[in-house]
Specification:
heterodimer; A: alpha/beta; B: 227 residues; mainly alpha
Chain lengths: 244, 227
């Protein structure tokens, strides 16, 4: 199974280590993501989820290890990989003084989207913020900023979608829209990677799950092979053992 | 063509952002006009040959006003880490530098557009005679300030004391530009020919601009990784 997955993997992280100064944040992390898969990585605060997400996005270089997309080193692909990646993080990546529309138009233009207005209209309608698009982002609530940031992530229809704690600030409707959209993207064959510490939500949407703690993936499984309660139990046990 | 298109998009965003807030431009403009007006009046009272100081005065005003704008230029990118999303787009990292550098150049030139004529008027320089050659020197000197200032602003913006760090690291590096620009401006103010007396200085300013633009373009990728 592992060999088969390794051969099919589209996005592959091998032996990733990351140090910030003397502090080790990631320790020998391996991960393989296939098309049409939604991988959810669970982990407590400070476990290294954000660092790992940034590394596979190409924004942060690992101290050691290799990340490949379609068998090519992502740091040697330059723009061709970046064009295919959509990244959502704790930071919204939005310009506060510009309106929602201006923000999306700016990013859309940098991705070379031809009919930007149509794409913005389509996504803003889908995420139900179409009436707020001409307001300055500074006036948005956290939840509205998150919705706009999700649209920014998806504006160029990326093949690889990376979301670090995407539920932050979202209300129930926002969560449902996001999960519906991610589910559609997964079915269309995109690679989706998500981190969260919300076991309930993450388990619900995942096709494969992993648990990261203290910079190591301690557990990995296909969702089909594990019940939610079982995952909950394993998570608690692993995190407790790691902490104490 | 794509790099030029990207460049246009990046500059347009900076101008739009500035138009919405006026944050840097208004501060730079008020500061530079105040300095020029105050010095024009006060120096005339105590120095009979104040015109000899004109070149120094105008360039000191420009450099201090530029620091205000340069400090602001990357702080807006750091807010919400927007620069990271720009880095993730397929735009060449060097083009991101060029976009920021040209935006800063435009903003400083706008300030000069208001400040320099006011200074010339207050100091009774012959406007029509001075402005054409002075425009060339202003362009060359400002390009130097902007090219070095943009990369140093990106470096200093991640530090805690960025407001004070930028001038500390900028001023020593910018000294050749300042000396060259002041020397050329002095020649213009004294009514002499730039072509005959400032050929070497102009060549030095041009070489400095090209050198720092090329080096900054090449190393900007590494600077961005630290942002």
């Amino acid at each position: 199974m592992r060999l088969k997955r390794a051969l099919m993997a589209t996005l592959k992280a091998e032996k990733i280590k990351k140090y910030f100064g003397q502090r080790k944040v990631l320790s020998n992390v391996n991960l393989q993501l296939e098309n049409g898969e939604l991988y959810v990585l669970f982990g407590p605060n400070g476990s290294g989820k954000t660092t790992f997400t940034l590394i596979i996005s190409s924004l942060l270089k690992p101290t050691e290890g290799l990340v490949t997309f379609e068998n090519k080193d992502i740091y040697k692909q330059d723009a061709s990989y970046r064009k295919k990646v959509g990244l959502l993080t704790h930071s919204t990546f939005l310009y506060e003084n510009l309106t929602g529309f201006e923000n999306l138009k700016f990013y859309g233009a940098l991705y070379g989207i031809l009919d930007i207005k149509r794409r913005i209209d389509e996504l803003s309608l889908l995420f139900e913020i179409e009436t707020r698009m001409n307001e300055s982002v500074r006036n948005f609530s956290r939840g509205m900023k998150q919705r706009l940031s999700i649209i920014r992530t998806l504006i160029h229809n990326p093949e690889v979608i990376l979301m670090d704690e995407p539920y932050t600030g979202l209300d129930e409707i926002g969560v449902q829209i996001l999960e519906g959209q991610l589910s559609n993207y997964r079915k269309s064959g995109k690679v989706i990677f998500m981190t969260t510490h919300n076991l309930l939500r993450g388990y619900g949407i995942a096709t494969r799950i992993g648990i990261l703690s203290r910079g190591r993936i301690l557990f990995e499984s296909d969702k089909k092979k594990i019940e939610r309660n079982e995952l909950n139990e394993i998570y608690r046990r692993l995190i407790r053992n790691e902490t104490f | 063509m794509k790099p030029f298109k990207d460049l246009f998009i990046l500059i347009k965003k900076d101008i739009l952002n500035e138009l919405k807030t006026g944050g840097a431009l208004i501060s730079m403009l008020i500061f530079s006009l105040l300095v020029v007006v105050i010095f024009s009046f006060t120096l005339e009272l105590i120095l009979p040959k104040v015109k000899l100081l004109g070149a120094v005065l105008i360039w000191m005003t420009i450099i201090f006003a530029s620091v205000i704008g340069l400090n602001y230029s990357f702080s807006v990118e750091k807010e919400n880490a927007a620069i990271k999303a720009v880095m993730l787009t397929p735009v060449d990292r060097g083009v991101i530098y060029m976009g920021k550098m040209l935006s800063n150049l435009i903003f400083i030139l706008i300030i000069e557009l208001f400040t320099v004529p006011v200074f010339l008027l207050f100091s009774n320089y012959p406007l029509m005679k001075v402005i054409p050659p002075l425009t060339i020197i202003l362009m060359l000197g400002t390009a130097g300030i902007s090219s070095v200032g943009t990369i140093l602003s990106a470096i200093s913006t991640s530090t805690k004391r960025r407001d004070i760090l930028l001038p500390i690291i900028l001023f020593p590096i910018i000294i050749p530009v300042l000396i060259g620009s002041i020397r050329c401006t002095e020649i213009i103010f004294l009514g002499r020919s730039l072509r005959e007396e400032a050929g070497n200085w102009i060549a030095m300013l041009g070489a400095y601009d090209i050198l720092f633009i090329v080096v900054s373009f090449l190393i900007f990728e590494f600077v961005l990784e630290e942002l």
